[in-house]
Amino acid sequence: MRKINKCLVANRGEIAIRVFRACTELNIRTVAIYSKEDSRSYHRYKADEAYLVGEGKKPIEAYLDIEGIIKIAKENEIDAIHPGYGFLSENIQFARRCREEGILFIGPEPEQLEIFGDKVKARKYAEKANIPVVPGKEVQTLEEIRDFARDCGYPIIIKAALGGGGRGMRIVRDESELKDAFERAKSEAKSAFGSGEVYVEKYLEKPKHIEVQILADRHGNIVHLYERDCSVQRRHQKIVEIAPAVKLSPELRRRICDSAVRLMRSTGYTNAGTVEFLVSGNDFYFIEVNPRIQVEHTITELITGIDIVQAQILIAEGYTLKNEKIGIRSQEDVKLNGYAIQCRITTEDPLNGFLPDTGRINAYRTGGGFGVRIDTGNAYQGAVITPYYDSLLLKLSTWGLTFESAVAKMVRNLQEFRIRGIKTNIPFLENVVQHPKFLAGEIDTTFVDTTPELFE
Ligand code: ADP
């Protein structure tokens, strides 16, 4: 057991604030880092202490300054670092450096990051654990990829082995597109992720994206907190998430959740993580693991009552899941209650190709009421939205006893929001959550890209 006294969050925006809140409730002092561009960012003022990081570096690189962050930690008696999502959250070298310096990294061990940072390795572990994976293959040459496509049939998808965030993927619908797509995928992978290694998978038509939230302590206890449906995606990036999945049969839910636990157990995984699957009819296929907190963890918290970020911290301190502070004595203790939905409200203009907007927020009024949760980084009247970072403005989550009531709350809240001075995707989100297919639970990952009326 090791009590954390002071925790640095190596991140910015809403997730930094989310972690500060968890720390404060656990009586842990909080430390922010901020780039020069973020010197007026809200997360800086939400921490007990704040330090400038990455001087002279570009806005994103500032938050990737491993040695700069370690230095701040060493100079200020920081005993733990939470990496949030994105930035250094899956960086093996960072996790190792924390370990070398005796700083607790609130996440899995570097050994697990190594497995799950590489989609090819992760697939191998899934196969070993007897979990179905999408038919696929590591490929080095055009001939190999052509052979694969001839065997399993088009369409196929080429992915960067080290890819993430919906980037570095290319769908190929017939052989004539193959050469070009392969070359581009490789060079994109190289420039975006530092490795030109790619692999190829059968492209599933109209699957659902279903992912399972896992919590594992350092004493061999592991549970799942059920699933989220993240099929509402634009260009492979999640926009609206639902928990639990609507219309998923109890039998399929059990098989998917059991597979997720089995995989994570087989790798000796600890802390919070998510196992992602594509689901087609009654079949499900592993795609990847996100070994970190995810943007959409909020809705799982709403339906289980479990504070996942607090659990991450307590697990890092050495608590077992069974300890009353976490309170999960067995899988049966994790109870589903109602439905929750999260909308990612961004400063993007849906009528103009989702172009990010920047400037000052002149008016900001939120929704609210029973069953509503708002997680925000820099959303308030007078805030200035800069072009340097991702365009997530806030996460709006609603909870209801039934899916219909969660939707009704979401619609009402989206309508209540007034944000002036900057464009947001709220009108688009209103269209999504009122669409008959969404209401019927009949969405798949192609829903947004094939439903033009959502953009009107
Ligand atoms: P990333 O790590 O970039 O998020 P993922 O492998 O998790 O990439 O895939 C993101 C999304 O891309 C999935 O949710 C799905 O919509 C789509 N996708 C990925 N692989 C396939 C596939 N084999 N068939 C169909 N869609 C896929």
Q: Can you describe what's shown?
A:
The chain is α+β, with helices and mostly antiparallel strands. An eight-stranded antiparallel sheet has the order 14-13-10-11-12-15-22-20, sandwiched between helices. Helix 1 links the parallel strand 1 and strand 2. The longest helix has 17 residues. The relative contact order is 0.12. The mean pLDDT is 96. The site of adenosine-5'-diphosphate has 19 residues, from strand 13 and strand 14.
Count the beta strands: 23
Q: Which molecules are bound in this entry?
A: adenosine-5'-diphosphate
Largest beta sheet, briefly? 8 strands, antiparallel
What ranges have pLDDT less than 50 throughout 5 or more consecutive residues? none
- Calculate the terminal CA-CA distance, rounded to whole Å: 55 Å
Share of β-strand residues: 25-35%
Shape by Cα distribution = globular
What integer value in Å does the Rg equal?
21 Å
- With strands numbered from the N-terminus, the spatial order across the biggest sheet is 14-13-10-11-12-15-22-20
Instruction: Give the overall average pLDDT.
Output: 96
Helix-strand makeup class: alpha+beta
Helical content band: 25-40%
Describe the structure concisely for a colleague.
With 456 residues, this protein is an alpha+beta fold. The chain contains 15 helices and 23 strands.
Provide tags for this entry:
456 residues, alpha+beta, 5-stranded parallel sheet, 15 helices, 32% helix, 26% strand, binds adenosine-5'-diphosphate
